[in-house]
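Key result, reporting period 2: structure in, sequence out.
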């Protein structure tokens, strides 16, 4: 795990949590419902399926290419599922207790657990599903070189 987010990254985490809690009507001081929300992540959002994404331990250390590959495969998985009407939440929280996940999903020791994906048919009337995360403008995050019309 990367540890606690800081700066703008922490701020984004707080902002999306505020959006979700507002949509769900969870008050800032409602410890019980906030705790339940956290527990949902461990419960794979009550989805019927959780797919655990792993890679060969042999690829460690320095498995950044394997991490990149798994990001690509997970993205493909989520999009493919969506074409069949299945919703997904890539769920880093779901593997925080990885020994428990390893035992229950019977994952061999030669596999490194990377993440998991909760999957199921979405509940359209579940308020949190309407939350849209804020995006930066393309111009803020992309540098275009060689596309200047005057050049
Ligand atoms: C690597 C990764 C880990 C994530 N972990 C969690 C998580 O632990 N809990 C959660 O609620 N959402 C998590 N998400 C976000 C959800 O998967 C989110 O629905 C998904 O990123 C699509 O929403 P977006 O379009 O706002 O990014 C994670 C996303 C990624 C890419």
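The corresponding designed sequence is given below.
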């Amino acid at each position: 795990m990367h540890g606690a987010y800081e700066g703008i990254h922490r701020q984004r985490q707080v902002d999306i949590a505020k959006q979700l809690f507002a949509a769900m009507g969870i008050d800032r001081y409602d410890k019980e419902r906030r705790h339940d929300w956290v527990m949902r992540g461990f419960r794979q959002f009550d989805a019927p399926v959780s797919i655990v994404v792993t890679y060969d331990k042999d690829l460690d250390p320095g498995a950044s290419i394997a991490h990149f590959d798994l990001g690509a495969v997970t993205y493909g998985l989520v999009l493919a599922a969506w074409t069949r009407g299945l919703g997904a939440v890539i769920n880093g929280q779901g593997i925080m207790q990885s020994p428990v996940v390893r035992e229950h999903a019977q994952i061999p020791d030669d596999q490194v657990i990377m993440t998991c994906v909760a999957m199921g048919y979405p509940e359209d009337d579940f308020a949190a599903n309407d939350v849209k995360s804020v995006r930066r403008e393309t111009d803020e995050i992309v540098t275009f070189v060689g596309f200047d019309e005057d050049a």
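The first strand starts at residue 49 and ends at 56. Residues 41, 89-93, 115, 133 surround flavin mononucleotide (CB under 6 Å). This case is discussed further under Risks and Mitigation.
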